[in-house]
Amino acid sequence: MISLLDNALFRNEFIQTFAVHINTTFKPARVLEMIDSMQQRVRNEIPSQIDLYGGQYIVFNPYGYHFTTMEEWEYYVQLMRDFAVERPGYLRSFIMDRFLLQECMI
Predict the structure, then answer these.
(1) pTM (2 decimals)?
(2) Are 9 and 3 in contact (CB under 8 A)?
(3) 20-49, pLDDT tens digit by residue?
């Protein structure tokens, strides 16, 4: 099977597009703003969700159960915030390692 990444033109375009998204779409300030906005929009509904589902096993929840307190919900929101801040650095490192790039290239 032929890999698109073996094609130098495609590979360079992929790396450039990836870099643009790291520096714009997934820029921590932008993602944090979105998380903050969504957090504010749903905050008032969380107590009802806790009353209905608190502590129940939820199949689609990667942690296995539904949170039981507002503090726990805020903890999970903070995990998303931390991920948003840390992820671009991991992605840059991955791309630089995968394609043997110099730091200045992404």
Answers:
(1) 0.81
(2) no
(3) 999 999 999 999 999 999 999 999 999 998
Residues 6+ apart with CB under 8 A from 55: 65, 66, 68
Answer whether residue 12 is part of any domain: no
Contact 88, 105 (CB under 8 A): no
* Structural domain contains residue 29: no
- Residue 38 is assigned to a structural domain of this protein: no
Q: Which domain holds residue 58?
A: 45-84
Going by C-alpha positions, the residue among 29, 18, 23, 16 that lies closest to residue 84 is 29
